[in-house]
């Protein structure tokens, strides 16, 4: 596997190093990823849309972000890396005409407004696809383009609430939001990326574009497929903290150590469970009943006491790297220093900000972190038209 380039020493742009500068030179990091040559127009937003476009830009796509006048995007933004940023007033009809000219040479569009907003701007799918029939039109919303809730406001916590996901996460007393990873980024951004890439692949064969309706509630529900399957075969019950993957089982969970830090274990398979017992000294015959749900609460209490007897560092020396399925529970700052993460260069540094490197990795066309830069729409449109 080719090593990712070290981006810690990219040349600084002229002017304020924290704000996009239209006079800044193009980033010295070349677009070498598998999407190099693909042109994507992003309508600025927050959350899953920008994250999806960050992934596309990391993979080499030429992503142009259309933002409001005076937005002054920070160069330090993780999700905003790798873009050309153009500031426009989309309420200006002349600006809309310029956007349509730009889209005529684009491969894909990504927008995250509420249903109907793009249509009112004169940039809906019908209008845009008339100018560019091969364009992939990616739409990122919480509730989708239609349905009783389509026009309602919402956030990740709401979108995952109606999928069965939130009800399954947390202690018995109450559900706990799993950050905004399940709806916004897992069910939203990643499904949008998959949808856009699939539609681009199909368009290369058919010559026809289409709309990709990526709704966070749809994606979060799709992520629950495994658990619907497990429920069907009787291996999952609708209740928190009583299943083998939700903290109910003593062999799959998080335990506090003597130092106040935590470790995680996932010793599901019998051979891994045997190693857990061996390394933790679990000689009590009660631990023979690994899959007896009725025994889980008592065994969990016993295991709590065992892990509380040593520090996290002690347990790492005993268990890390074995087939117990063990790992220390690290904070974000600790994660950047973990030897495995350092060896794989999972994190890079830009402008003093530690951040995840591009993922996944490609052996022949590696992704790269590129700097954002200010741009003018006329210049980008001319360059895209010349490249067609």
TrEMBL record:
Its EC number is 5.1.99.4. Gene3D superfamilies: Crotonobetainyl-coa:carnitine coa-transferase, domain 1, formyl-coa transferase, domain 3. GO terms for molecular function: alpha-methylacyl-CoA racemase activity. Residues 1-30 are annotated as: Disordered. Keywords: Isomerase. The keyword Transferase does not apply. Residues 14-30 have a biased composition (Polar residues). InterPro entries: CoA-transferase_III, CoA-Trfase_fam_III, CoA-Trfase_III_dom3_sf, CoA-Trfase_III_dom_1_sf. It comes from the Bacteria. This is Alpha-methylacyl-CoA racemase. The gene is AMACR.
């Amino acid at each position: 596997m080719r090593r990712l380039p070290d981006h810690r020493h990219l040349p600084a742009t002229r002017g304020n190093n924290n704000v996009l500068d239209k006079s800044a030179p193009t980033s010295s990091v070349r677009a070498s990823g598998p999407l190099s040559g693909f042109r994507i127009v992003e309508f600025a937003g927050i959350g899953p849309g920008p994250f999806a476009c960050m992934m596309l830009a990391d993979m080499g796509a030429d992503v142009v972000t259309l933002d409001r006048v005076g937005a002054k995007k920070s160069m330090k933004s993780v999700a905003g890396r790798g873009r050309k940023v153009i500031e426009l007033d989309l309420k200006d009809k002349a600006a809309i005409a310029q956007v349509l000219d730009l889209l005529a040479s684009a491969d894909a569009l990504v927008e995250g407004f509420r249903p109907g907003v793009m249509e009112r701007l004169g940039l809906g799918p019908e209008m845009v696809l008339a100018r560019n029939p091969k364009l992939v039109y990616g739409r990122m919303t919480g509730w989708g383009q239609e349905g009783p809730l389509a026009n309602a406001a919402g956030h990740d916590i709401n979108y995952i609430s109606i999928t069965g996901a939130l009800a399954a996460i947390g202690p018995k007393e109450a559900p706990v939001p799993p950050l905004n990873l399940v709806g916004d980024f897992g069910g939203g951004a990643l499904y949008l990326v998959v949808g856009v890439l699939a539609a681009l692949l199909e368009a290369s064969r058919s010559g026809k574009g289409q709309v990709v309706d990526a709704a966070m509630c749809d994606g979060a529900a799709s992520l629950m497929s495994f658990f619907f399957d497990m429920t069907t075969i009787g291996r999952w019950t609708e209740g928190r903290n009583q299943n083998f993957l939700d903290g109910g089982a003593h062999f799959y969970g998080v335990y506090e150590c003597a130092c106040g830090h935590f470790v995680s274990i996932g010793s599901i398979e019998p051979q891994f469970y045997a190693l857990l017992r061996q390394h933790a000294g679990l000689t009590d015959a009660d631990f023979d009943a690994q899959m007896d749900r009725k025994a889980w609460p008592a065994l969990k209490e016993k295991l709590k006491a065992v892990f509380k007897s040593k520090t996290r560092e002690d347990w790492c020396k005993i268990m890390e790297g074995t087939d117990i399925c063990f790992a220390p529970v690290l904070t974000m700052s600790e994660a950047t220093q973990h030897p495995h993460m350092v060896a794989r260069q999972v994190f890079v540094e830009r402008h003093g900000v530690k951040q995840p490197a591009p993922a996944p990795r490609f052996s022949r066309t590696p992704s790269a972190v590129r700097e954002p830069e200010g741009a003018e729409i006329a210049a980008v449109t001319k360059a895209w038209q010349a490249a067609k």
